[in-house]
């Protein structure tokens, strides 16, 4: 078993890889967020773009995202809170911290992400972020 880089206890094939490969659809916002993290670790910017809608997609620049992601060494993902979603819900939130190295410095990205369900699929539409150096040099 190869554990998924998203930090779940699942095998990567039964976790994020099935969504990134198109063999499955993320059933909830947390699964989608975890798969987006995994896609960033793989430099799969096309998947990132395909899982966005609304303001997030309008502001997204794939070239900038690629350049940024190439400079990052991802360390781990922490999911702090995730909305419990019912079939009637079309908006949900996931709070997470992504730990990474950038230019030799430990960093963390703390975000509360907003997701909308559109035609039965969840999409990232935006979030409030804060980048905080862990050990500034």
Task: Provide an overview of this structure.
The chain is α+β, with helices and mostly antiparallel strands and 137 residues long. The chain has one domain (12-133): Nuclear Transport Factor 2, Chain: A (Roll). It contains 5 helices and 4 strands. It has helices at residues 16-20, 29-41, 45-50, 54-58, 62-70; strands at 72-82, 91-102, 105-118, 121-133. The protein has a 4-stranded antiparallel beta sheet with strand order 1-2-3-4. A hairpin with a 2-residue loop joins β3 (105-118) and β4 (121-133). The longest helix is centred in the N-terminal third of the chain and has 13 residues, at 29-41.
- Largest sheet features: 4 strands, antiparallel
CATH architecture: Roll
From the N-terminal CA to the C-terminal CA, the straight-line distance is: 38 Å
Order of helices and strands: HHHHHEEEE
What structural class results from the helix and strand content? alpha+beta
Beta-strand percent range: 35-45%
- Widest β-sheet, arrangement of strands: 1-2-3-4
Using DSSP, what is the number of strands? 4
CATH topology: Nuclear Transport Factor 2, Chain: A
């Amino acid at each position: 078993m190869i554990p998924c880089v998203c930090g779940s206890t699942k095998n990567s094939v039964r976790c994020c890889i099935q969504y990134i490969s198109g063999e499955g659809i993320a059933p909830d916002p947390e699964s989608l967020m975890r798969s987006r993290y995994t896609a960033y670790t793989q430099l799969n910017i096309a998947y990132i773009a395909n899982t966005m809608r609304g303001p997030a997609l309008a502001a997204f620049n794939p070239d900038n995202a690629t350049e940024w992601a190439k400079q990052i060494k991802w360390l781990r993902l922490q999911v702090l809170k995730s909305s419990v979603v019912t079939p009637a819900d079309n908006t949900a939130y996931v709070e997470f911290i992504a730990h990474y190295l950038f230019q030799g410095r430990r960093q963390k990205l703390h975000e509360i992400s907003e997701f909308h369900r559109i035609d039965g699929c969840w999409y990232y539409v935006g979030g409030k972020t804060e980048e905080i150096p862990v050990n500034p040099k």
